[in-house]
User: Fold this.
Amino acid sequence: MCGITGYIGNESCSTIVAQCLKNLEYRGYDSAGIALLDDSLEVNKRSGEIDNLTVPSTSNATCGIGHTRWSTHGAPTERNAHPHTDCTERIAVVHNGIIDNYEEFKADLLDEHQFTSETDTEVIAHLIEEALNEDGVDLREAVERVVSKLSGSFAIAVTAVGYDGIVAARQDSPLVIGHDDDATFLGSDVTAFVEHTRTVTFLEDGDIARLTEEGVTIVNDGEVVEREPQTVEWDADAAEKGGYEHYMRKEIHEQPRAVRQALSGRIDELAGTVDLDLSLSEEYCRSLDEIQIVACGTSYYAGLYAAGLLEEYADVRVSVHIASEYEFKGNRDPWRTLVVAVTQSGETADTLRALRKAAGAGARTLAVTNTVGSTVTREVDDTVYIRAGPEIGVAASKTFVSQVATLTLVTVYLGQQRDALSSNERASILEELSAVPSSIQQVLDAEPTVQREAKAFADSDSFFFIGRRLGHPVALEGALKLKEISYEHAEGFAGGELKHGPLALVTDETPVIAVLTDETNASETLHNVKEVESRGAPVIGVTSDDEPNAVFDTTFDVPSIGLMEPVVANVYLQLFAYHVAKEKGRDIDKPRNLAKSVTVE
Ligand code: F6R
Assistant:
């Protein structure tokens, strides 16, 4: 995710701002920049590493803002790096998140303003420029006016020539202020400045904070508000992980935000429409004969999930291929086959090879990835970003859920283009999709129950995961997660397959985790639950249905949201894997023998 820093105090601050930015490196970024405020504004930005910045150590500026960018709109170039400035280069803005409605402002601003980047952020600088042109408007008021027009999720920091200090605003994206004796800091998280101060104020949604040498004033909805400063106990290492012991747990907890970002600005829930900025014509979508999904590991399971949705709602034949096993068969019509590569890193060698085979045969290609500028994006006809933000834990968690959310958008988009779904049907899927973030939050809130069960079963040598239909890829992914990070044997099965072989392995020491939500043929899976229970196996039911609870030894409750319940159920399986691995003292973020990006075949 992008990172924000800010400083206002009585020291010359260029190296302080740069150091605070370095502290945010762990979040992942592809470009960086700082703006120092003196009599004029000195902006320095570069693609690539923070070390590429020219930080003027002789600057007298005592106020500055900085940013590390993880691209979502526009390539990771110097032009698109933050801070962004207005036409007069007197206002500098850094921004985390996504402005959903920036295009409507940009269209109006283009008549009188010069844009230099492809970002959504730059509109903020020009809108503030316009607001400041009005009589009697100061920087805080200008930011307040602009922010009230923006939709999306954002945290911004603004500094401007002629105005003292920094103005910061938060909507759905974290910002925290650090209070030192002679200085005030700003950060997208405490890590930015924890070496200077542990006394902090977390901003809340709707807050506009003004940071000056005199102190901090916070306004929300036009009223001055007092926010109680807190003392953080974290050391720098814990702060990097936002207070979590492992990146993986932090990333599991980031999922509500990650899904919101995947949906942000792409859906009109009422009209039931999806805009993914794709070049696929309606004629092409209608003529499609087959979609082939190519992927590996967790991304392959996201592909299996998507296949279930695409076949049903976009009315198209779908085949899902383990990328290393893929051959583009000669009997397909390449023009009528869309090959979709699902890959969080965008660099997986097996997936790239499969994609090249398909493109070589003349098929159209689409990438669903998390990484702007990755190899896959340079080789395909179209890309849809999942916008999960950087994932540092080797085992995929938030990228799986964001892949599924994004592929659901692709499904609705194709359903719309192919006239396979009415607008009401599309609206209903989008409504269920929009309920995913809050439903995931409910699962996260139930973590203590999962932790207790993980502790109870941590010594088991073998775990089974079962599910049907959309519960099947979730069972496969649950088992993969557990084996990767706990090093214990775990297998996922289609519930119906148990009796065709695996049942021979089930004993009273084989915990079975069964996914029985909507879209998983729960009543049939219940038969499988009975099969394993009669062999003495303890069963954890991950279910949205109240009725069968009595059947299970333990129940993990999934909120009832329909179509997307299985992906929400997956969050329980992530937490279960995490806590079993933690109980066993495994190296959760860097499991043995595994790499985050697998660039060899
Ligand atoms: C499992 C995991 C891997 C990846 C696989 C593909 O937790 O992370 O199975 O899903 O290596 O990687 P990407 O998605 O980068 O192509």
